[in-house]
């Protein structure tokens, strides 16, 4: 991993690149964006309090993004789109067995396989094996059946021996478009296999609401990476100083979304999940493996939103969750846990173009503020 700077000056908001002569970024007057109205209810849900966009497909009032025929003995749980659970169930009345649908793209195939097998202490050597797996139907599409068993270690870090993951993955090229995942004690998962497959065949997408005249058609905001949500454009809860040569992206569902150069992009995102898994997903987009504990602890830091954001500077061939490819790319990510959410600034593009934005990226991060 390459660090953005040879020296990181905490407290100044400046990333210094020793030995390199770069043209200083030029900034105009700070742009004032329309203020987003934050909920005043003291008991507001995190999604509302933190202005987290809805990741589900557009739908009419009262209509679910997805519908399914619930197997006998399964209990519906509240959907949690912020954690990629568009439909969510407790399996067979077992407290430690769950199943959920993620009905939208979740990223490149390799990092997701690495993560799933890694939760069982196993290594997947190649994505080529996916083509030899059996198939089933999910959301009307062919899905590969992935089965992993052993000692399962979820995010809470507590190992669970004798567990199994039964997963259907709709794969297009090297990207995963949707998944249905069932995890629990092996005996329970095996006993519920037929119910799981019947559930997968029954899942349907809710009809989208009619778009007002002049608005983008439904699906125009499809997820292309962890910061792009299935939602209408929303007002940014953040402000920041933007370099003069950055061009705003009209109608984007990302916060403070700008383009630069021929193919460079920078934007702010806010997610409800944990920080470390997101870092590994972004590394996967650049063809790099997961961070080990030491790599995670030794990441560079930069000031952002009153906290210290972890900084990754990655080089490689970029493949977004939506399949966009940039050969010889560079990605800068600054991410921090702020007010219970993962807030990040992501900048990527051809390496030479990103190189010219190092100072502007650091200044952008340091200038970020949350609107009152």
In short:
The protein has 372 residues and is of the alpha+beta class.
Task: Give short descriptive properties of this protein.
Jelly Rolls; 7-stranded antiparallel β-sheet; Protein Transport Mog1p, Chain A; alpha+beta; 34% strand; 8-stranded antiparallel β-sheet; 372 residues; 21 strands; 16% helix
Write the layout of secondary structure elements.
Blueprint: E1 7-9, E2 14-16, H1 46-49, E3 66-67, E4 75-77, E5 87-90, E6 98-102, E7 107-108, H2 109-118, E8 135-138, E9 141-152, E10 160-172, E11 175-185, H3 186-191, H4 193-202, E12 204-205, E13 238-239, E14 247-248, E15 255-260, E16 264-271, H5 275-285, H6 293-297, E17 300-304, E18 307-319, E19 325-338, E20 341-350, H7 351-355, H8 358-367, E21 369-370
Antiparallel strand pairs: 1-2, 3-12, 4-5, 5-6, 6-11, 7-11, 8-9, 9-10, 10-11, 13-21, 14-15, 15-16, 16-20, 17-18, 18-19, 19-20
